[in-house]
Design brief:
With 360 residues, the protein is of the alpha/beta class. It contains twelve helices and 13 strands. β9 and β10 form a beta hairpin. α3 packs parallel to α9 and α4 packs across α5. InterPro entries: Aminotrans_II_pyridoxalP_BS, Aminotransferase_I/II_large, HisP_aminotrans, PyrdxlP-dep_Trfase, PyrdxlP-dep_Trfase_major, PyrdxlP-dep_Trfase_small.
């Protein structure tokens, strides 16, 4: 048996699959556990789908390039940003030899995608103030081909300082690609680093329509990078990655009217997030409310499982993120509609009353 075959067998046996919000919890009438946008928009479809779609639909690529402020040859569309992650690892990492670096607590799919493709993972935890530990990150440079940075970060909601991202780009010039995951960037557009693509040919930016555009069910994501990186990814991607109905809806979402609706939704969600954060700070059992620039808020509590279970019994789902490295007992609350947030706050207030009674 070859070294790679033996390694593959070991990795498959050890691999822990990503526990999505849908797989982790079911039921409930209010879903605030998957960072979805509950304020959906209606779209119209042509209904003509007897032909295979283009691999990279020109109208969609042009629409997103215009929206992101880049050239069309700097854009690749895929089945969510998750496929973009996998394509990057498959394209630029040699199984059994190369590595990626990640900075937890962060999005779990970077690690799982790498491990499933027999690529090592260097784990460099964020500092206590949720910034990059640059000395440790730079010390892990051997065999690193990709550095993943999530900003706004999931599940903490914080922004990685722009100057730190630039330091990483500078350090890894001619060494590795720096992948900045901007899945939630519409909630803090001023923090985007897409404008740095013209300066750094080792920068890759991941985007999605799942969050601010309220199209999680569409599974439509984008990778922004210099043309040679996009060309490499196109060689690796499946022949028909974007179904025709997906492209149709995505183009409508990226129209001027669609963008206007998205921005109005973002403004409302940001306002609801700040109101919820203010409310959460009044709860005695919440020891920390993490500042957030996304459509969710992370809370430190004494017993995350108990709180999640109590809230679920009332028909509302939030997410226990206590398994994340360095976080302790925490829950993540996705920001829903005004009615959903009012319902959640009422339940959390009743839990507070229950806690007081139990302490007597």
């Amino acid at each position: 048996m070859s070294r790679i075959s033996s390694l593959a067998r070991q990795k498959v046996q050890q691999l822990v699959p990503y526990a999505s919000a849908r797989l982790s919890m079911s039921g409930g009438s209010v879903w605030l556990n998957a960072n979805e946008n509950s304020m959906a928009t209606d779209y119209t479809l042509s209904g003509q789908y007897n032909r295979y779609p283009d691999c990279q639909p020109k109208e969609l690529i042009s629409a997103y390039a215009s929206y992101a402020g880049v050239e069309s040859n700097q854009v690749l569309t895929s089945r969510g940003a998750d496929e973009g992650i996998e394509l990057l690892i498959r394209s630029f990492c040699e199984p059994g030899q190369d590595a990626i670096s990640i900075c937890p607590p962060t999005y779990g799919m970077y690690k799982i995608s790498a491990e499933s493709q027999l690529v090592d993972v260097n784990i460099v935890p964020l500092t206590q103030d949720l910034t990059l530990d640059l000395p440790t990150l730079f010390a892990q440079k051997a065999n690193v081909k990709l550095v993943f940075i999530c900003s706004p970060n999931n599940p903490t909601g914080d922004l990685i300082p722009r100057e730190q991202i630039i330091e990483v780009l500078e350090f890894y010039k001619d060494k590795a690609l720096v992948v900045v995951d901007e899945a939630y960037i519409e909630f803090a557009p001023e923090a985007s680093v897409a404008g740095l693509l013209s300066q750094y040919n080792n920068l890759v930016v991941l985007r999605t329509l799942s969050k601010a555009f309220a199209l999680a069910g569409l599974r439509c994501g984008f990778t922004l990078a210099e043309p040679s990186v996009i060309a490499a990814l196109r060689q690796m991607i499946a022949p028909y990655p974007v179904p025709a109905p997906v492209a149709e809806i995505a183009v409508q979402a990226l129209s001027s009217q669609g963008q206007q609706k998205m921005r109005a939704t973002v403004e409302q969600i940001n306002s609801l997030r700040e109101s919820f954060s203010t409310f959460a700070k009044t709860l005695a059992y919440v020891s920390r409310v993490y500042p957030s620039k996304a459509n969710y808020v992370l809370l430190s509590v004494p017993d995350a499982a108990a709180l999640v279970s109590f809230i679920a019994e009332q028909g509302v789902l939030i997410r226990n993120q206590s398994s994340q490295l360095g976080l302790g007992q925490v829950v993540r609350v996705s920001i829903g509609s005004p009615a959903e947030m009012a319902q959640l706050q009422q339940i959390m207030s009743s839990y507070s009353s229950l806690q007081k009674q139990e302490s007597l």
